Here is the input.
Amino acid sequence: MTRDGDTQADPDLPADLRAGGPVPHVEGAVVECVLKADRYAETARVRLPDGTLAVWKRSVAVIPPGVRVAAAAHRLAAREADHLERLIGVSGIPPLLGRPSPDVFLRRWIEGADLRQVKDVPDRVFPELRELLAAVHAKGIAYADLAKEDNILVEDAGAGHADHHQPWLVDFQISVAEGTWAGGLVPLLQRADRYHLARHVKRRRPDQLTDDDRRTIAAGKGLLSRLHRTLVKKPYNLLTRHLVRRWSGAGEGRREDEPRGMRDIR
Here is the structure.
């Protein structure tokens, strides 16, 4: 499906989700553009009645041969919103703005580009991302999907703005929290988070690589990378590539031919 803001001609889009149309379950809000619509979630940039820009996300959970599993959709939306709620107040996590229905939540829109689209990584990005990840971990959450650069957003709030180039983590679709059925894996997955961050630093800003980063990379080459592949990547790829036979896309990052500000998440 197209990821352009002009989605009117796309037959794959849900009938109730169109650019310029009303936002389902949010009275008075308007859809600005549809970012993604697949068998797992529908995501749009919307303008709320007070003018606030937000990301509207509805879990779908459609399995072959096209059956929507409502209970699963509700659980997926609640799980991600719960994580955002637990992280309220953490700088670099978009605030949760509302949960208008069991399968929908709203969070703040962030203007920027994902890390893979940033040619020269600014000095502040990785040091602040380390602090952000530590704050997420302190709340008992493992991000669990930091291997991909497109899951790291670099804000572009404009030159001279206090938040210029601030890093953000915006997609908690497969994150894991303490106190849940998979909570026992959180410490190991948090180690994997630190490992993947250290690898990004080594690749993109080797001048900022610390001794801790080097130790993390050395310790993580075996167990942690296998853990991530076994517990995260393989099950996710099995679902998205083989069972459903439709890849959901590598994020909501901006396309190369798209104006700045049209994307902000995976």
